[in-house]
Amino acid sequence: MSKLEIVGLTKAYGKKIANDHINISLNCGVYGLLGPNGAGKTTLMRQIVALTKPTSGEILYDGQKIEVLDTKYRNLLGYLPQDFDAYGNFKILEFLEYMAALKDVKDSKAKINELMSLVGLQEVKGRKIAKLSGGMKRRVGIAQALLNNPKILVLDEPTAGLDPQERNRFRNMISNLGKEAIVILSTHIISDVEQVAKEIIMIKNGRVRIKASGKELLGKMAGKVFGIRVKDEEQIAEINEKYKIVNVQRGADYTNVRFISHSKPEIVDVWKEEPMFEDVYIEYFER
């Protein structure tokens, strides 16, 4: 089984530390990478796909340093960057043929047709990439990342711009890929990782804060999530001063507040809520 080890990985840009001694071990399966903007997620992914060299530390694939493996390692990779706007003058089919040639994909015609069907591009394959919507460009990006049947698939905000039906289809596809590949999925859409990730890696200020299964993360939040029906905005402000508010739900004649507290709140008429992934995110990343 493939194994990717990240050992003491640090990346500094001058005085700014983007990644700070990251240590994680990954094998086949889907891993959700969560964190606020500027947490160091993209820097970590760029090092994993060998686009950025670490300041210190190393990455090993099946026990060998990736810089020693060099081309052999790169041939195992599939990558979708967050900003996928290059090659605008290419038509979709032309672009996938070009990328297949660069990756030396065998029987590329069949593979391209398979992927275009998979992500719903067959009917628009003659359209220029520059004229596509954001969601359509993500589909092209996903297809090119899968051309070489990668053993390590790194996806940075892959579902940005996709509609709910497309996101559901994508999640199912990623879940299947995780049976035989290491899939790293970075996203701000918590439901995308909630449903497919076997483990979630949470990063803040360049450091891994926690790496755990969804069940473990929700278990840590048990007894910490509460709800209350409030009377006015003043009461919401009072709750916000003492606790972490997750959301405020306003109905026609009511307003419910969901919030996090590490002990039973000193407020009357509160009730306990079942933890959700949104609660986990707020707990770790909101001040």
Automatic annotation (TrEMBL):
Belongs to the ABC transporter superfamily. Keywords: ATP-binding, Nucleotide-binding, Transport. GO terms for molecular function: ATP binding. SUPFAM superfamilies: P-loop containing nucleoside triphosphate hydrolases. It comes from Aequitasia blattaphilus. Pfam families: ABC_tran (PF00005). This is ABC transporter ATP-binding protein. Gene3D superfamilies: P-loop containing nucleotide triphosphate hydrolases. It comes from the Bacteria.
